[in-house]
């Protein structure tokens, strides 16, 4: 199948990539760029594990063709912070025990980051509502909500 050249800014770096017309953004980020924080959960838009930011807004990368992201800016959990220099949300998730198996965590972080960019002081209800598209099979959500509340200064 013919490949198309696309350019993306991923976690602040310009990238030129060759993708097939049916390549999903999720697979391109994982397979071509090694960004394993982008998780393949359900593949049908139900779990939120594949959530990334596209031009600052959350998208489900399992539902998006890579060619549609041409020219746009993508941020994954790897772009939020680094070991030794974690993003406040990453730190808070660790401190609040909001990570168990960790599979949902990158997607949760991206959604939480998007929420706080839109609304720096969300209520607990607003946090729960915003994160409802991100499923966690381990934590029961209480610790995740507390972790986000702590960053918003509302714990
Ligand atoms: S893998 Fe994309 S929503 Fe589940
Ligand atoms: S920590 Fe395991 S799915 Fe959320």
UniProtKB/TrEMBL annotation:
The keyword Iron-sulfur applies. This is (2Fe-2S)-binding protein. It holds the Pfam family Fer2_2. It comes from the Bacteria. InterPro entries: 2Fe-2S-bd (IPR002888), 2Fe-2S-bd_dom_sf (IPR036884), 2Fe-2S_ferredoxin-like_sf (IPR036010), 2Fe-2S_ferredoxin-type (IPR001041), 2Fe2S_fd_BS (IPR006058), Beta-grasp_dom_sf (IPR012675), Diverse_Oxidoreductases (IPR051452). PROSITE patterns: 2FE2S_FER_1 (PS00197), 2FE2S_FER_2 (PS51085). Residues 4-80 form the 2Fe-2S ferredoxin-type domain. Keywords: 2Fe-2S, Iron, Iron-sulfur, Metal-binding, Oxidoreductase. PANTHER family: OXIDOREDUCTASE WITH IRON-SULFUR SUBUNIT (PTHR44379:SF5).
């Amino acid at each position: 199948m013919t490949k198309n050249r696309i350019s993306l800014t991923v976690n602040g770096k310009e990238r030129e990539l060759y993708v097939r017309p049916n390549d999903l953004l999720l697979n391109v980020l994982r397979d071509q760029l090694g960004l394993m924080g982008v998780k393949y959960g359900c593949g049908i838009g139900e779990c939120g594990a594949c959530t990334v930011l596209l031009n600052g807004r959350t998208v489900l990368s399992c539902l998006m063709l890579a060619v549609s992201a041409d020219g746009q800016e993508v941020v994954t959990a790897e772009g939020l912070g680094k070991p030794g220099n974690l993003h406040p949300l990453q730190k808070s998730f660790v401190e609040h025990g909001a990570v168990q198996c960790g599979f949902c965590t990158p997607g949760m972080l991206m959604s939480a980051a998007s929420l706080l960019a839109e609304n720096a002081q969300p209520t607990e209800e607003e946090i729960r509502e915003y994160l409802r598209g991100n499923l966690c099979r381990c934590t029961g959500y209480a610790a995740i909500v507390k972790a986000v509340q702590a960053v918003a200064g509302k714990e």
